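Case study 2.
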Amino acid sequence: MSRLNNTIEPTPAALGYRMPAEWEKHAATWLGWPHNPTDWPDKLDTIRWVYGEMVRKISAGELVRMLVGSKSEAKLASRYLTRAGADLSRVEFIVHPTNRGWMRDSGPVFVKRSKGRRETAIVHFHFNAWAKYEDWQKDRRVPVMAAKHLGKQLFDSRSGERKFVLEGGGIDVNGRGSLLTTEECYLDPQTQVRNPGLSKSEFEGTLRKYLGVTNVLWLGGGVVGDDTHGHVDDICRFVNANTLVLIREDNRKDINYKPLAENWERVRDFRLEDGSKPEVVALPMPKPITFDGDRLPASYANFYISNAAVIVPTFNDPNDRVALGILGELFKDREVVGIHAVDLVLGYGTLHCLSQQQPVG
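Prediction:
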């Protein structure tokens, strides 16, 4: 039996837990109300209206748990959400100050077990602001708070004696045992190093213990402009147990062409947990979006799968319709809708980066 930090405490996998796929039934979606002006320079008010549309679509099928810094911020958020047409009866405001609102990376990562008591628990992956920024202390406490708030067991992720760092945007799972990630994000020994000195096999072993996965699939690098240094949710996603979408850049002169072409070479050798080859569907890229001379990580792969709808970032680009059409064919069981993300991507992330699912349990 796997053990946590060489003590008698078993890991989630040893207790029968696994990380469910995003399309499995949710009890709620966690969001953090936008408040840090450095994330969206001169655009914070605009971003609040984008949140209104996100909440309106998500709350149609599940509860939204919204972190706010204070009761007064909850009142402010309520005004925006009400005017945007969101159902406030489906929104729970939780007062917990944060440094930023990127719940995919700092929020609670849930695991679930179905044998015996059907229940969920939370894994604490010790967020450190992508090993880049110094203000992460409030964000790191979010999983601890969430476990107390929900009365859930909290697993403290460790690799040996050290705390293990992982962000939700750096992984994607099919719920059957396979997990996607990138070497750029978690194996680069020099840039934004989350777990210094940790080998590839040790990294995979820790994922197996805490997420219940059996099969780790490695892509190379992410898109240019990604502040996280290679998160997989900007390039490749599972859409069902044996199908993934992978973004492709057709313009050979684009800076993203070479790294994305390499990922297409890698995916040819992918095998799922049962040994079968996944079906791979291409998603286009929008034309480059820049701000103050910097390329932004605009990608249609940063969609979020909620109970009622798949919300997809759009960029006022002809490929918006193409991407929505492709995803609409892949998700027959729920609405696929676009949400304007030209302003949102100024924060170096969009819809998936901001949301974290809580599975039913």
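The chain has one domain: 13-359.
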